[in-house]
# Entry
Amino acid sequence: MKEVIGIIGAGTMGAGIAQVAAQAGHQVILVDQNQAQLDLAKANLEIILNKLLSKEKITSDQKSSISSAIQYEINNTSLASCSLVIEAIVENLAIKHSVFSALEEIVSDTCILATNTSSLSIASIGSVLRNPSRIIGIHFFNPAPLMPLVEIIPAVQTSQKVIDNVMTLISAWGKTAVLCKDTPGFIVNRVARPFYGEALRIFEEGIADFATIDWAMTSLGGFKMGPFTLMDYIGNDVNYTVTESVFEAFYYDPRFKPSLTQMRYKEAGYFGRKSGKGFYDYSENATSIKAKEDIDLGQEILDRILALLINEAVDAVFMQVSSVEGVDLAMTKGVNYPKGLLKWADEIGLNEILLRLEDLQLTYGEDRYRPNPLLRKMVKENLNFYPK
Ligand SMILES: NC(=O)c1ccc[n+]([C@@H]2O[C@H](COP(=O)([O-])OP(=O)(O)OC[C@H]3O[C@@H](n4cnc5c(N)ncnc54)[C@H](O)[C@@H]3O)[C@@H](O)[C@H]2O)c1
# Structure
């Protein structure tokens, strides 16, 4: 029989992770302190499974075995039999600490304790444990059942055995498990920052409007969504807060500087889709804004944002946050980028990327645009990220 998996928090992420584990054949114990949230998670799962059944993606036998595999509980004491517990509660270090300290008294000595945190360090979460070698980050993306990427983040305290077991388990769940260092934003939320930040900067300088920047990134770059459409989708409040936390965590490195424009949109309550207005207007009578489909301008926008994204991807490799393949997999499987950024860099030519960054740094005199040392070294030595 497969191990019992515990999930704490039946919100957006916890409910999705419970579905993933149940679909992989585990018995799952889903805990939330709020009974209404448990009822909602159960009702939502029923709707999702009915949809999958009507699309013939699962059989009715599979539907009933997935439904019956999840046990809904209000108290963490029900997690005693679990070999892995994944915490997906509110993003607050003090609350996570109290949950993990209490949890360690309930589970067995061999139970792995994981967190789905997006922004807190795994080392800080694990610091309250008597045995911190069992803490690990298992970072799913939203919606967990659909997004293939899972970032696996060992803390400095984590044992190799725990890392190996978690990598094997998450891969067996059909996910793309990518190993990543315990650093701010992990891979995706760090490397993706310029997609938003540089788009906002281009707008702030008056080079192009939202619609034109979105058009350049989707039509010329092949991204599924433009940066402004995506920020409206994520929510300007959420997206701004992630940028701010990454900026602070990197000791205010200008590469991650948040945008005043986005701050104003957030302050005004222009969160995006969920508030009916963000960079775009989502009301019924809204007039759609037309992009200025100028190829030269579009190419200039794409080249600039892409150069910064690639610089960030190179930095993640340089600082050993992940491998070349890990960074490329993370961006394609976690945020649907049309191509791995390092593969893309090889195709464009590393020298060309370096020239773009040097030009931006010279023009603006800002450290934000400084080319990564690994990029410089690779250009000097005429190297590529992948074999030619
Ligand atoms: N939402 C995302 O896109 C996303 C993506 C990746 C990671 N995360 C991370 O996952 C975690 C959960 O995020 P979410 O969006 O699912 O949050 P959410 O607000 O949707 O759900 C959190 C749930 O935890 C419950 N809860 C809070 N304190 C609890 C406690 N002490 N014991 C038991 N249950 C408790 C709440 O009742 C709520 O149902 C956070 O750490 C977040 O950073 C979120």
